Amino acid sequence: MAVELGRSVLVGLIGRGTALSRTPRMHEVEGARQGLRYVYNRIDPAEMAETPPFEAMLRAAEICGYAGVNVTHPYKQQALAWLDEMSDEARAVGAVNTIVFEGGRRVGHNTDMWGFAESFRRTMETEPMDRVVLIGAGGAGAAVANALLGCGVGTLLVADTNRTGATALVAALEARFGTGRAIVADGAQAVVGAVDGIVNATPVGMADHPGTPIPTALLEARHWVVDIIYFPMETEFVRAAKTAGCRIATGAGMALFQAVKAFELFSGLPADPDAMRSTFDSFGPG
Questions:
Q1: Do residues 101 and 265 lie in contact, with contact meaning Cβ atoms separated by under 8 Å?
Q2: What is the CATH number of domain 8-109+255-281?
Q3: CATH superfamily of 113-250
Q4: Per-residue pLDDT reduced to its tens digit, 167-223
Q5: CA 252 to CA 280: how far, in whole Å?
Q6: Is 76 an active-site residue?
Q7: Which of 22, 28, 45, 76 is flagged as catalytic?
Q8: N or C: which end of the chain has fewer CB within 10 A?
Q9: Going by C-beta distance under 8 Å and a sequence separation of 6 or more, which residues neighbour residue 165?
């Protein structure tokens, strides 16, 4: 595809509490590196006098000429109602984190799923994956669940305080991957002693959601632990896992690779993961 260097690309992020997000700078620096006039704005209702409906924020981005938007908490699932079409990944997950405006149509994608899978393969693919517990069945949890089973996890145990949500996610996973590949867990604490890996896909551990998703005394050196949170980069849960001798991965990899894929969708150009990682790391440990 012929590339017009110097063209403008305007995109944004719709979500609550995004002030610490590293995504805007990753996109803008990569765009500049490729000769684009690339602008990435945050559209955060937490910083507005009144909270507008999601559709109003999405429509405003369209009217202003955005190429698309990323979507984060708490809109990843409710965004589905405002799309014209979805990628296969978004349909499988039942949530979107990237919406591209194409010829008057809103096309939803889930780059979280691709981003987690890419990061997971690079950090954990040599670890045992017979049984893994996923804590959190929301939009991010659904993306992570699909990625984990796609990466070869034998049985995924899904734990969520909202059992209805966990049950719905397990049903969708079984329809895609086969009966018995996913099971609703009666709480993460009840199963952690019988799993190889533990993945936190809840907000627990973020600055405004302090704590750990399970009691850290349950962690054993044989576990591997992934926490998809990346601000703070090292959550209390990750610190405890390190202390227990667990192999760990933070949310940095997922954040990086979902941005790599989203940049490609917005700009039509492949991104350089190493260059974007350098920008991500420039923020410091966080």
A1: no
A2: 3.40.50.10860
A3: NAD(P)-binding Rossmann-like Domain (3.40.50.720)
A4: 999 999 999 999 999 999 999 999 999 999 999 999 999 877 899 999 999 999 999
A5: 8
A6: yes
A7: 76
A8: N
A9: 137, 138
